[in-house]
Amino acid sequence: MVKVLHIIEAFAGGVLGALQTLANGLGDEFEQYILYNERAESPKEPEKLFKSGVRFIRSEHLTREISPREDLAAIREVRRIFDEIQPDVVHLHSTKAGAIGRLALDGKKTPIFYSPQGYSFLMYQCSAAKRKMYYVLEKMLGCRPSITVASCEGEYDSAKKVSRQATFINNGVNLTELDRFGLDWDKRPDEIRICTLGRVVPQKDPAMFNRIAAAFPDVKFTWIGGGELESELASPNIEITGWVTKEQAVKRMMDSSVFMLTSLYEGLAFSIMEAMYFKRLCIVSRIPGNVDAITDGKTGYICGTFEEYCRVIRHLLDNGIDGRMTDAAHERVATELNQVVMAREYAQLYKKGINSRK
């Protein structure tokens, strides 16, 4: 039995989705523990999201914000949990857990893997000085004996700049979970309806989403989710659903024909992969992660400016959706970007790391 200790501060959103998919996909030969921080948006009963046997340890000190006092306490806490469990592998998820874990476990012989799921130094809503600080911290921590595992090839390009050792394993979605909805992905509304899914936060660039919606007042736009910047979605043709269940989110996505993601930075977003599998035409921003999922003009559209988004949407309004593109996107997820492939590659990576330390 291989003991894996997952450490995650960002226990919500896409980072949680990546961990959930991985942990549920690993075979019974892996005994898994999750040390996590509970945020306001974290699930109240996380055990319901994971397969039986996964064990949860709620952290008392892992926090989102930088706090010297709490961060030092978190380092001590991680060391204590590590000594109690004696894992064969440690996997750090998100940048804060990556920093605390690598500081706490420096010098340990146990293989340590770190998945950024979107680097903090790419957060364009932060000041240049703060992004520089995050970059320097990643560069310093990247010299420690750990392996960075990027969520896609685009993130891998960033990882190589700040990590001594790096590789990438594409994120993947759980096809069994998506298939259980029993929906016909080929059925789409006759008219163009556009949706997105996620938190309404600076990362997702709601101002751009609103600007695009305002340019097409006769098209219905839906933001599936909620968040701190809902006031920026002021165009009257935008509906904000607020937080909904997975089932409700899928239904709302199926009510649309187009999925649009205007994010400023991403890893390999689960929302895109789900939309691809659901055969919703994807229009996404030209950033690492998005461009790893979508091939422009073949499985969707990649846009870098407001004008490019408008040009694509006008094309769809005039010509409709090319089913060959949505079929190709669906096929890529079905064969490459899924839980089976993702879990298999992580299992091989874990075992390789263990064998290298013997």
Please describe what this structure looks like.
The chain is α/β, with parallel strands linked by helices and 358 residues long. It folds into two domains: 2-172 and 338-356, Rossmann fold; 175-335, Rossmann fold (3-Layer(aba) Sandwich). Helices cover 41% and strands 16% of the residues. The protein is built from 13 helices and 13 strands. It has helices spanning 13-25, 68-85, 95-104, 128-141, 153-162, 175-179, 206-215, 246-254, 270-277, 290-293, 306-319, 323-335, 339-356; strands spanning 2-8, 30-36, 55-58, 89-93, 112-115, 147-150, 166-168, 193-197, 220-224, 238-240, 258-261, 281-285, 301-303. The strands form two sheets. It has a seven-stranded parallel beta sheet, with helices on both faces. Strands 10-9-8-11-12-13 form a six-stranded parallel beta sheet, with helices on both faces. Helix 1 (13-25) packs across helix 13 (339-356), helix 2 packs across helix 3 (95-104) and helix 9 packs across helix 12 (323-335). It is globular. It starts with a strand and ends with a helix. The model has no long low-confidence stretch (mean pLDDT 93).
Principal-axis shape: globular
CATH superfamily of the largest domain: Glycogen Phosphorylase B
| Assembly annotation | single chain
> Roughly how many Å is the radius of gyration?
20 Å
CATH architecture label of the largest domain: 3-Layer(aba) Sandwich
What order do the helices and strands follow? EHEEHEHEHEHEHEHEEHEHEHEHHH
Number of helices: 13
Give me the secondary-structure category: alpha/beta
Calculate the terminal CA-CA distance, rounded to whole Å. Answer: 16 Å
Average pLDDT, rounded to a whole number, is 93
Question: Helix proportion of residues, in percent?
Answer: 40-55%
Strand order in the sheet with the most strands: 3-2-1-4-5-6-7
- Biggest beta sheet attributes: 7 strands, parallel
Proportion of residues in β-strands:
15-25%
CATH fold category name of the largest domain? Rossmann fold
Q: What top-tier CATH class of the largest domain fits best? A: Alpha Beta
Spans of 5+ residues with little confidence (pLDDT < 50)?
none
